[in-house]
Amino acid sequence: MRHILHRCHYHYTAIAQSPSTYDVLCIPKANIYRFGDPNSAQPVLRDVNWTVREGESWAVVGSGASEKTALLETLLGNMRISPPPPGGPFPSLSLKQSRPINESVFLVSFAHRQPAFSGGAFYDYTARYGVVREEDRVTLRQSMFPEESGLVRDSIKSFIVPNNFSAYHEHEQQDPTSQKEEKARRFEELIDKLELGDLLDLPLVALSNGQTRRARIVKALLEQPDILLLDEPLTGLDFKTRPRLLSLLHSLHASNNPRIIMGLRLQDPIPEWITHIALVQGGRVKTGDRSMMLNELDHAHIRETARSAASVVHTSNSNSEVLVDMQNVNVRYHERHVLKDINWTIRSGDRWHLQGANGSGKTTLLSVLTGDHPQSYTQRAPTSALTLFGIPRVAHATVQLRSRIGVVSPELYNAWPRARNMTVWEAIATGFDGGSSPWTRRARRGRRNWHARDGGELNEGERKWRADRVWEVLRGLGPHTWDGTAQGEATLVEEFARLSFAEIPAGVQSMVLLMRALVGRPPLVLLDEVWAGMDEGMVRAARAYLREGGAVVVVSHWEDEVPWGVDDGVKRFKLENGVGTVTMA
Ligand SMILES: Nc1ncnc2c1ncn2[C@@H]1O[C@H](COP(=O)(O)OP(=O)(O)OP(=O)(O)O)[C@@H](O)[C@H]1O
């Protein structure tokens, strides 16, 4: 594609012109490097030539989450632009020069989920389901107004600018009371538009994934940035919330309050109000208006083929073994009755799509099924029953259930320890027992041996089976499968297995956690929002791989992310107002 070399227009030079000609951002023909890397190093992005003008609405679309994120990070000032844009190291030009970049440009990313806050240790995310601990009691409302809720100590209050309104609206010079009122008014409006009103007094830890994501967007908007970068904002949002959010973002963007730039995956639909697209692929950025770039996207976007691939091998029938049997299962948190008399049977070979709006109880239901939820113990006769693998839940040790149910979920991803020096191979191998280390304590002191399910060590035959199985999964889902060529399998797989888990990109970490869930050949696999952050090639490889194997439950708000079609006999379990219903596809 022919690149037009843009000249950057500063705010102060453009001010006499029509407002539509202002440049909001400008990177004029430059390479992007990580800070600390010299110009002789390999740039993260090459020959970027990109101008965003006032009035344009941009999406940054990328095939790999890491490249797309690199461009968004550049806008945040976290990458080095060489040569730098005229007037300074940052690409944002039309903004108030007096405002530091960390106040004027914000990024809220759903592609790269929050890493664990636990300094590298595995933290117990199941704590959310039990009695909420004192330190987790911060409510949604308090988190939005920390300076007023006692969460900020008096001694540091004077260092906090109540909000950024005075810096932002220099000419308005609002007094502190009207600033507060304005912030409160905006808060009410946003809470209403994103339907968070009923949740304001819940502890943050009690919010579902979709509720948390909406809350993070509100929090960022209350900080009044000039530009809000939203990376994959539709991830994990239910189908009713998506148009609401998009319409809110459109109206905010139209009034420059703030300007929105969206990060999207190649496979995501482009909202109709987006006028321009920056396509990040193979270390280069192509930019242009919507109609021109949609052609580029079609070209870049290899349509999913897995659905039409060879038909599935394993399917269930009414004689297949019952793995899970729920009879009148209920979960309550005080007056909130989240699951009401749920009846659900999962058989060997079943393919389930678990559906329901944000907050409808999907994660809660899965946590009952894995035995992580304390209320899984209270589902007993005569009122209810929870039978797992043929025996009542209460008769199972929870650790044993972990080796029989493979799980990938946002909670697991967030909680996964990253500071430890764990290789990709070891991370996958933890899947046999569902813990976070494959080795016994003694092994860590020098003699490496596998954990066994009873806490002891394994014999040689079992050790060999496990090691072979890790390599098998790596061959089935490793990097050579993501580009569809399957080239260089042996070398790629070996090199990949040796990488540090903590240092691979977020989408690749998701892929490794999927391999971990599958490695032990568990009879039941639960995949909750498993595709977040993965690029299209990974999704395609994973979907093709998942067409075989044991019973699988997929949680996704996107019908086309479910790896099976009608012909594969996929069944749907839908939660609505706490009630579950089964529908066949
Ligand atoms: N400790 C708690 N106290 C009160 N309510 C809670 C608690 N934990 C969860 N909830 C509520 O239970 C409901 C179900 O949450 P859950 O995480 O199961 O939803 P979900 O269907 O998985 O949503 P999403 O699609 O957003 O991930 C939510 O409305 C949530 O706020």
Automatic annotation (TrEMBL):
Keyword Cytoplasm: no
Gene3D superfamilies, sorted: P-loop containing nucleotide triphosphate hydrolases
PROSITE patterns the UniProt entry points to: ABC_TRANSPORTER_2
Domain ABC transporter: from-to ranges: 27-307, 324-585
Pfam families: ABC_tran
Keywords: ATP-binding, Hydrolase, Nucleotide-binding, Transport
Entry keyword annotation includes Repeat: no
SUPFAM superfamilies linked to this entry: P-loop containing nucleoside triphosphate hydrolases
SMART domains from the UniProt entry: AAA
GO terms of molecular function: ATP binding; ATP hydrolysis activity
InterPro entries in the cross-refs: AAA+_ATPase, ABC_transporter-like_ATP-bd, P-loop_NTPase
Family as reported in the entry's similarity comment: Belongs to the ABC transporter superfamily.
The protein's name in its UniProt record: P-loop containing nucleoside triphosphate hydrolase protein
Organism annotation: Multifurca ochricompacta
